[in-house]
Fold this protein.
Amino acid sequence: MEKLYSPATIRKLKEKHDFRFSKSLGQNFLTDENIVNKIAEGAEIGSEDLVIEIGPGMGVLTAAAAEMAAAVIAVEIDSHLIPILRETLSAYKNVTIVNADIMKTDVRDLIAKAKSQSGRAFSGVKIIGNLPYYITTPILMKILEENGHGDGFDSITVMLQKEVAERINAEPGSKAYGALSLAVQYYCTVDMVASVPKEVFMPRPKVDSAVIRLNLRKSAPVKLTSPGDFFAVIKAGFGQRRKTLLNSLTGVCGLEKADIAEILEQVGVAPQRRAETLSLREFADIANQCTAKKE
Ligand code: SAM
């Protein structure tokens, strides 16, 4: 098999299998060996690890992961890519190709099945992928929420739009900081692995990309009485970014302005502050007080 990351190989496979890129499935295939290796190495895949890959495409990253891991399960939605993957990955006996929508797949089940079928304990479980950009955030949030702070897997190392990576990694006070930063950081610590220019994809996307690693926290960084109220407070706060907290939070959990004013005073947060300046802990303190007050 010729190098999978070569544009010539991609063209040849396209012709042979009469395959057409689907824009609506976010198909931008990697054509640069360095970037493929950056994702695989950034994921810190060990020889005893199980890897779950989201969207293998023609298998360029799958092959790199298969060289490093004990086993790889690659979940691809596009049935037209399955015969291509069977061809490109035929040399790797440790790869299982699953034709499914990751949004309808319980990753915990995949992991449990892989463990029971192989009859072995893997030393780690790493999720990787060059994510389809039309659905990056829903995929990440689904996998994180499903797992909670459980020990289902260790990390998620993915390529995504640079702007989304910056939002995920943002600190309070920065422009990129928002509901996504807080939601992801509640479950993970974030490492930026690499910036990736649009020239290394076929076809080229409109935006630049980045590789990030999300390291799963084994326990919650803040104690929440009701995670639902925590996310409701965040949503309300950032829903009206320009308003002061006192105004943007009025109505959250069915609470009136006077209640919110009291809560903000109790937790030591000035009512004229704006959501983008609040830390995870401050949001948690406010949410826990909202839960207590509404009951
Ligand atoms: N990993 C390949 C690479 O780097 O060249 C392909 C990456 S491409 C950006 C995204 C891949 O995800 C495509 O193969 C696409 O068909 C697949 N995909 C899109 N939506 C998906 C979904 N909901 N579940 C599983 N795979 C999906």
Notes: The pocket of S-adenosylmethionine is lined by residues 25-30, 54-57, 60-61, 75-78, 81, 101-103, 130, 132, 135 (CB under 6 Å). Residues 280-294 form the longest helix (15 residues). Strands lie at 29-30, 49-54, 71-76, 95-99, 124-130, 155-161, 188-196, 201-202, 209-216. The chain has a mean pLDDT of 96.
